[in-house]
Amino acid sequence: MLDSNSNSLPDDLCDALQWRYAVKKMDPSKSVSEDKIAALLDAIQYAPTSSGTQPFKVFVITNDDLRTKIRAASFDQSQVTDASHLLVFAAWDNYTDARIDSVVDHHAEERPGTREMLEGYYGNLKGMYLPRTAETNFEHAARQAYIALGFGMLTAAQMRVDTTPMEGFDPSAVDDILGLGDKNLRSVCMLAVGTRDAANDWLAPMKKVRKTDDVLFERID
Amino acid sequence: MLDSNSNSLPDDLCDALQWRYAVKKMDPSKSVSEDKIAALLDAIQYAPTSSGTQPFKVFVITNDDLRTKIRAASFDQSQVTDASHLLVFAAWDNYTDARIDSVVDHHAEERPGTREMLEGYYGNLKGMYLPRTAETNFEHAARQAYIALGFGMLTAAQMRVDTTPMEGFDPSAVDDILGLGDKNLRSVCMLAVGTRDAANDWLAPMKKVRKTDDVLFERID
Fold first, then answer.
1. Mean pLDDT along residues B127-139
2. For residue range A123-147, what is the model confidence (pLDDT) as tens digits?
């Protein structure tokens, strides 16, 4: 039960969790500052991922032509073009030897003297991942992107930046629009980042609804 | 580039992103207070999910016998028993008519006068979800759990509570241990919540490594 008086949540975080909602109508005249976008991207960049692979890429789109095309592939949802920035999260379409090697190389460079340990660790990872189907590996990569999506949304809320997480789009169409196939990426979710137009948003005045503790959690002591 | 001087991230959030890491060695003598666990669960409860379905359940386990069994199914990773609380995120194994109806009923109860609109909206959702395979729906539900996992980890870090996100376990074995099959749930990830034993953790002194901006992001203006 979210209540700033009853637990240890920092007040600002508690307020942010109540303040945020999935905005349905953005005000296209109110842009989010590049400073805040940079801060939001920092949170995405520093989100943890499985074995530090960060198996995705994030496209930060302000281009109007592209966003018009993406909106057409997103059931014409207005946030795609009314937001100030559209983030498209695209996960690796598979794990490969070369992609995991590039993680090893980067870590070894940043952590001198660890190459042997890293090669052992990621060698085991390859043993698990490489025999799996591309679809299984893609789904695993997609889940990692969702951790970063979570970090991004919660950080945005704490900066009082509005967001709309979006899955209601045709992934293949968005992949084509952004040329993701050539990059071995597949779009998994989008995050519209902008400013709520509360007066014209049917969802804005609605009470926030969440499952109660007894439905969502089970304690086993 | 994470730097509290260069952008708009609240200082505490910037510090939290640097402070957190996936703890490899927890100190079993240092429990996390129930207040902080409640706050962490609040963040999980208030994380956004697709159409507000919250298609997962979180088991909060302190029971030693159960954790010993889960540790055996988790490559003997010590955090499972050395953490103070083990959270197991379990996603719905499918979307069904009845489960979506229960979401409609709950929302209609909390938002009087919206039942007709809700039935229309979730009717469309059923039209999309119910014809899909159970595996596709499970993967979609799992992704939603990962958003909540992200909210939980970032919130914990801001309270200076340590966590270890864990995927290195045998999901079927954990499902059996917790009897999840009977509940139409499947385990997807775990979060050990405890207190780092930094002196005995090989990862604690390591530099944090993240992909650089130019690798992780692509701006399209």
1. 98
2. 999 999 999 999 999 999 999 999 9
Which residue from B minimizes the CA distance to A63?
A: B221
ipTM of the complex: 0.97
* Phi, psi dihedrals of residue A217, rounded to the nearest 5°: -120, 150
pLDDT digit string, tens, across residues A59-82:
999 999 999 999 999 999 999 999
Are residues B17 and A43 in contact, defined by beta-carbon separation less than 8 angstroms? yes
Kind and range of the H or E run holding B17 = helix B11-19
In this structure, are residues B150 and A146 in contact, taking their beta carbons and an 8 Å threshold?
Answer: yes
Distance separating the N- and C-terminal Cα atoms of chain A: 20
Sheet holding A162-166, edge to edge: A162-166, A185-194, A85-92, A56-61, B217-220
Q: Check B144 against A146: CB less than 8 A apart.
A: yes
The residue-averaged pLDDT of A32-49 equals 98
List strand residue ranges (DSSP E) for chain A, in order: 56-61, 85-92, 162-166, 185-194, 217-220
What is d(CA A98, CA B52) in angstroms, rounded to the nearest whole number?
A: 38
Nearest-CA distance from B2 to chain A in Å?
A: 6
**Going from the N-terminus, what domains does chain B have, and what CATH number goes with each?**
20-91+139-215 (3.40.109.10), 96-131 (no CATH)
Instruction: Please give the Cα distance from B126 to B115 (Å, whole number).
Output: 16
Name the DSSP letter for residue B206: S
> pLDDT per residue over B60-115, tens digit each?
999 999 999 999 999 999 999 999 999 999 999 999 999 999 999 999 999 999 99
Q: Which residues contact A131 (CB under 8 A, 6 or more apart)?
A: none
- CB nearest to B146's CB, from A33, A146, A221: A146
A18 vs A90: CA distance, rounded Å: 28
